[in-house]
Specification:
By secondary structure, the protein is an all-beta fold. It has two domains: about 5-80, Thrombin, subunit H (Beta Barrel); about 90-200 and about 265-375, no CATH class. Helices cover about 0% and strands about 50% of the residues. The protein has one helix and 36 strands. The strands form nine sheets. The chain has a four-stranded antiparallel beta sheet, with no helix packed on it. A four-stranded antiparallel beta sheet has the order 5-6-7-8, with no helix packed on it. It has a four-stranded antiparallel beta sheet with strand order 9-10-11-14, with no helix packed on it. The longest helix has 5 residues, at about 375. This is CNH domain-containing protein.
Length: about 400
């Protein structure tokens, strides 16, 4: 008997794996015509009723939205887990928007701290639980990052759950399962939004140049912000992650650049693009084949050539890119890393805490948006009681 609660099972390379309402994964090894208990590990916080195999590794998924990969070696069971990711924030030079599903909070960053503007809030209104953190080069050498001085601007209440938000200097937009709504940011002494138009729903949206981009499966629509009409439609063979590079739009899979006049140019770049940052050069984050090695490439758009490359090893998850002076920054689900661009590769790590959603670069700071994972787990459905671990 494996457990006294519900389980699921899968076989892979001579091993049997079990997981279920008791969220610990237990592994049995085939030895001399029988299966012997080999190892047990605990990657989940709530019940996990999904098991599969991907690239010869066993994968589990749980109600906690964590995905874990397992690999049995000769003497032990190794695993890596990936926390949930969602695009909950958008940022301009000095304003950051936080998506709370049925509302959006706006903050001014790079300012001195001051009191909340109560006139923009309803009584007893609750702020977003996400935290803002400032990271400077000095802070990376300290034990803890600094709290970011910021000013609360307003809360926008939504009629439906927003699946994605986008923000630029003059506009804000969000999309739901029914529609996409576009606003103009008013240039008054206070932060205000004016509703402009409702459009078709989309799966993701972003701004680039003078256009709003609506992304749907196999079709991308570019909406002119001056006329609010469709300026161009682009058909794609599959999903493309899109990146805004100021006046350019970049496609992750095909490495196509769409310019200000909506002309398309193919970049001379051999990898699928995972993330980008525009600094002195265009910085591209990619992965070397199916290995665990990430590649940061500095790219010159004007010459369509690669300037240099750096390889990131021993970091199982990389998200976000930012450049400050002669240092490059990126983050994982729990930490921020940095290294020198013009010197010997010297990777520095600063632990922030789960769960880091995103990193944004403002003129004076790097801004991380993250949640307290300990608080999140308090809302999970309780799994089956876990008895004391016994390896044999």
């Amino acid at each position: 008997q494996v457990r006294d609660s519900a389980i699921v099972a899968i076989a892979n390379d001579g091993y049997l794996y079990f997981i279920g309402q008791d969220s610990r994964l237990v592994c049995y090894k085939h030895v001399d015509e029988r299966f012997v208990r080999f190892a047990q590990t605990d990657a989940h916080y709530s019940e996990a009723m999904c098991l599969g195999v991907f690239a010869r590794k066993v994968v589990s998924a749980g109600r906690d939205a964590i995905i874990a990969f397992y690999e049995a070696k000769e003497d032990s069971l190794h695993f890596k887990k990936f926390y949930p990711r969602r695009r909950i924030s958008a940022c301009t030079d000095n304003v950051i928007a936080i998506n709370n599903k049925t509302s959006v909070d706006f903050y001014a960053v790079d300012e001195e701290p001051c009191k909340k503007e109560e006139s923009f809030m309803h009584k007893n209104e609750v702020h977003s639980e996400e935290l803002l953190v400032r990271l400077s080069e000095d802070a990376l050498d300290a034990a803890h990052p600094q709290e970011l001085p910021c000013r609360y601007l307003m809360k926008l209440h939504l009629e439906e759950v927003a699946s994605c938000i986008a923000l630029c200097e003059d506009h804000f937009a969000y999309t739901t399962q029914c529609k996409t709504r576009l606003y103009r940011r008013m240039r008054d002494t206070v932060f205000r939004l004016e509703h402009l138009r409702d459009m078709e729903k989309c799966i993701e949206l972003l701004f680039f140049g003078e256009y709003l981009v609506l992304q749907n499966p196999l079709l991308i629509s570019l909406i002119s912000l001056s006329t609010l009409e469709t300026a161009k439609k682009i058909s794609v063979p599959g999903y493309e992650k899109l990146f805004s590079l100021g006046n350019f739009l970049l496609f992750s899979e095909s490495c196509i650049l769409v310019g200000p006049t909506l002309e398309e140019t193919e970049m001379n770049f051999p990898f699928r693009i995972l993330d980008v940052f525009v600094g002195e050069h265009l910085c591209l984050l990619s992965r070397k084949g199916t290995s665990a090695v990430y590649v940061v490439t500095r790219f010159d758009i004007s010459r369509n050539t690669i300037v240099d490359r750096k390889y990131i090893k021993d970091v199982h998850e990389v998200r976000g890119l930012a450049e400050r002076g002669d240092r490059m920054f990126f983050c994982s689900s729990s930490s921020v890393y940095s290294y020198g661009l013009n010197s010997e590769f010297n990777l520095k790590k600063t632990y922030v805490g789960e769960l880091v959603y995103s990193m944004h670069a403002t003129p004076r700071n790097l801004v991380l948006v993250y949640d307290d994972w300990t608080e999140i787990t308090k809302g999970f459905k309780r799994a089956a009681d876990k008895k004391k671990f016994l390896k044999k």
